[in-house]
Design brief:
The complex is a heterodimer of chains A (448) and B (286). Chain A is built from 17 helices and six strands. Chain A has 448 residues and is mainly α. Chain A folds into two domains: 158 residues, no CATH class; 228 residues, MetI-like fold, CATH 1.10.3720.10. Chain A is elongated and about 105 Å long. Chain B has a single domain, classed as Rossmann fold (3-Layer(aba) Sandwich), CATH 3.40.50.300. Chain B contains twelve helices and ten strands. In chain B, the strands form two sheets. Chain B has a six-stranded mixed beta sheet with strand order 6-7-8-3-9-10, with helices on both faces. A four-stranded antiparallel beta sheet of chain B has the order 2-1-4-5, with helices on one face. The chains are: A mainly alpha (448), B alpha/beta (286). Chains A and B meet through helix 13, helix 14 and helix 17 of A and helix 4, helix 5 and helix 8 of B. The structure holds adenosine-5'-triphosphate (ATP) and magnesium ion. Chain A: Pfam families: BPD_transp_1.
């Protein structure tokens, strides 16, 4: 091959390499940017007076004196709304039955919208569900609710050949000629007076438990559950994996049995995680009966089995990478094999072993499928350390799925979902980062 | 005191062959007391790698407290023979031995021999310096700790004594807690000698200990061997004929796995019995 072609090939290879890295970085940005921006929205947002009310009565946090003045001031503006509502009710009572029938459903919608925006109306009985006890706690949600109040969503079916089209009809038009028309501009103009929005930093999102299945509150039970599950998995898998790796590298003779073990290990690494989930349910819960039903311990054991092959592989590679000369030096000084492993080989292999361990820890924290049947519940409070043998736990990975797909008010609490995703991604990234730092530290110490 | 190759260069009119012989004359050395008994005895000793017989039916007596050099062309089984004395060949799968080799009268490959105890008594320094990635102190203290010395003061004493014996103390005494991999190659090799001495072995096996070192560091190691001579039974594999003649009392010449000649260094280099030995030491083949 002549020089020209060689250089051309070199150059084109370089550009393809750079190109693929750029594409990867872009893909990462596309994934991470919305996660970070939306996730941060769970902690930093414009909160309303309803949020402060909720914090005070659910978590007993905040300045009650200050809140009282705020409520008093917002109530002054709200009173007008309620006045208009009851005014219209009496107006309706005086109407002919036909007109009453015409207005009642429309009025019902208006009332519901006001309730959603401002919370229960005065004189209403205390709602059963916490989610109905408060108005909108977040300003951007309040604006959505305001839209619901001002406009009615309708479908245009006039063209039979086209898909029906969504459009918004002004509610004030349906109440033309009644006293209620004044309500709509009033609410629009006095939104901030009634809800008193202000910039809020809600660190409690990380440390609070959830209230009424994540409608309010934070994600601490999920964070803690993820932590318990992942750390529990490590407690089982790490020592086992290192011992297995030592066996494979130092003690196993090359024979049928051992090559079987090796290929079993490689196969295990490729098994889909949902299979581990089923296995965990069938083996740990139904057969071994480590717990009555789902529990942290069952989930940890399942995750441990899942990450075991990775840990073994990483540890094996790290041990094999230890120079032969260390082993010779140690043995020639009259060290036993076991002593050589414990005092020379494992310390020298430690950076690699730990890196594998931490990466597996990240994987255990992020996996959903293995814990669906063995450990995860969608709603629950943070469990104590003593309960890990009997209680299931919420966990970030499972709850992200649950909130996105199964939650009855999924659209209402997107910010919680994003917050969870951000928390999970941060935890995994943090773990991987610490693996890198740890590795660098130890390697530096070893190299002197 | 040390003779060098320069002799041939500075006297070009002297026939090369003749002068080569002269350089190999071993220098005068201090007298050894209490040594000279057979310490390691090989009888019809062979080592196989699979089917291949790397060391063939070697019989020899290695005398205690003296320095024995092993020379021979590459691949002739020098390292294999040396490593068999402290059973480092055990690490190589498929290797086995026939015949026997005794250390202090006990069969090294005997069924009841504890190879760990044997290695404690028969220390080894390798071709490439191989300190552990630990501090200088921990490197030296590794062996003693292994054998049950945990007292800080005792360990510190052992470390100091061993480093002094290895002529390294003055160079490293102020940085004992630094990583040993930061030392120079020659210092690392002396550290390895010190590490071996710290276990208080009776025999010191050196497999080309200076092949990775520059002349200055080599001279230091050779001086060190002179220092240790008389206290330890020393066996040294070397490719350097001058080095063999400088440091050893006895020399073994191996060729293709066979022990061709084993005699006092003075005799082997001045008046070899075997023509093959003569060819080798005069550089007719290597
Ligand atoms: N692990 C091994 N497996 C198989 N054969 C080996 C092994 N080690 C060495 N040999 C063979 O045994 C013979 C003797 O090797 P040895 O290393 O003892 O030679 P040597 O005299 O030390 O050579 P050098 O001077 O190059 O170090 C050589 O032919 C070599 O190829
Ligand atoms: Mg060799």
């Amino acid at each position: 091959m002549n020089l020209g072609t060689r250089k051309l090939l070199d150059r084109s290879f370089t550009s393809v390499g750079i190109g693929s890295i750029v594409i990867m970085a872009l893909a990462l940005m596309v994934v991470l940017v919305p996660i970070v921006t939306n996730g941060l929205g769970a902690v930093f947002f414009t909160g309303t007076v309803e949020h402060r009310k909720m914090l005070l009565s659910e978590f007993n946090r905040g300045d009650s004196r200050e809140l009282e003045t705020a409520i008093a001031s917002s109530d002054r503006y709200r009173a007008k709304v309620y006045e208009m509502l009851s005014g219209f009710e009496s107006e309706m009572a005086a109407m002919t039955p036909e007109r009453q029938d015409e207005y009642r459903p429309k009025y019902g919608q208006v009332k519901t919208a006001v309730q959603a925006l401002l919370g229960p109306l005065p004189g209403d009985p205390e709602p059963m569900l916490t989610r109905f006890k408060y108005g909108q706690t977040r300003w951007e949600k309040a604006e959505e609710k305001l839209h619901d109040l001002l406009y009615e969503t309708k479908w245009d079916n006039s063209d039979p050949n086209a898909m029906s089209k969504e459009y918004f009809a002004n509610r004030s038009e349906s109440f033309a000629g009644t006293s209620l028309v004044k309500l709509f501009p009033y609410v629009r103009e006095n939104m901030s007076n009634m809800l008193l929005p202000e910039f809020t930093v809600y660190w409690g999102f990380i440390t609070d438990s959830s209230v009424d299945s994540h409608i309010f509150g934070g994600i601490w039970p999920e964070i803690q559950g993820t932590f318990f599950l992942a750390v529990g998995a490590m407690l089982f898998a790490f020592p086992l994996g290192v011992i297995a790796a030592v066996y494979f590298t130092e003690y196993a003779k090359s024979g049928f049995f051992n090559s079987m073990l090796r290929s079993a290990n490689s196969t295990l690494a490729g098994v889909p995680s949902i299979v581990f989930g089923m296995f965990g349910l069938a083996f740990f819960i139904n057969t071994l009966k480590v717990s009555e039903s789902k529990s942290v311990i069952a989930g940890s054991l399942t995750l441990a089995i899942m990450i075991l092959p990775t840990i073994i592989r990483a540890a094996e590679e790290a041990i094999l990478a230890v120079p032969k000369t260390y082993r010779e030096a140690s043995l020639s000084l009259g060290s036993t094999k076991w002593n050589t492993i414990a005092t020379v080989i494992l310390p020298a292999a430690l950076p690699g072993i730990l890196t594998g361990g931490v990466i597996s820890l990240g994987r255990a924290a992020g996996e959903t499928a293995p814990i669906i049947f063995t450990a995860a519940v969608s709603v629950g409070s943070a469990i104590g350390l003593a309960d890990v043998f009997s209680s299931p736990t919420p966990a970030l990975s499972w709850n992200i799925y649950n909130l996105a797909s199964e939650h009855e008010a999924a659209a209402q609490i997107r910010h919680v979902q994003y917050g969870m995703v951000l928390a999970l991604v941060s935890i995994v990234l943090l773990l991987n980062l610490s693996a890198i730092v740890l590795r660098a530290r130890i390697s530096k110490k070893l190299k002197g | 005191m040390l003779m060098t190759d320069d002799v041939t260069v500075t006297s070009p009119d002297v026939p090369a062959q003749k002068s080569t012989r002269e350089i190999y004359l071993p220098p005068a050395r201090k007298k050894i007391t209490g040594g000279g008994t057979p310490h390691i005895v090989a009888k019809e000793f062979s080592i196989y790698y699979g089917e291949f017989e790397a060391v063939k039916k070697v019989s020899a007596d290695i005398l205690s407290k003296y320095v024995t050099a092993i020379i021979g062309p590459s691949g002739c089984g020098k390292s294999t023979f040396l490593r068999s004395i402290n059973r480092m060949n055990d690490l190589i799968p498929n290797s086995h031995t026939t015949g026997s080799i005794f250390f202090d009268g006990a069969d090294i490959y005997g069924r009841y021999t504890d190879e760990v105890l044997l290695r404690k008594k028969v220390g080894m320094v390798f071709q490439k310096p191989n300190p552990f990635p630990k501090s200088i102190f921990d490197n030296i203290a590794y062996g003693p700790r292994l054998h049950g010395v945990n007292d800080k003061k005792t360990l510190a004493d052992i470390v100091e004594r061993s480093l002094k014996k290895a002529a390294l103390w003055s160079e490293v005494c102020d940085r004992l807690d630094k990583n040993a991999l930061g030392l120079s190659g020659g210092q690392q090799q002396r550290l390895c000698v010190a590490r071996t001495l710290a276990v208080e072995p009776e025999v010191l096996l050196l497999d080309e200990p200076t092949s990775a070192l520059d002349p200055k560091a080599t001279a230091k190691i050779e001086d060190l061997i002179q220092e240790l001579r008389g206290s330890y039974t020393i066996m040294i594999v070397t490719h350097n004929m001058q080095q063999a003649s400088r440091v050893s009392d006895y020399t073994m010449f191996f060729y293709e796995g066979m022990l061709v000649e084993h005699a006092s260094t003075a005799q082997l280099f001045t008046n070899p019995r075997d023509s093959m030995t003569e060819d080798y030491i005069t550089g007719r083949f290597s």
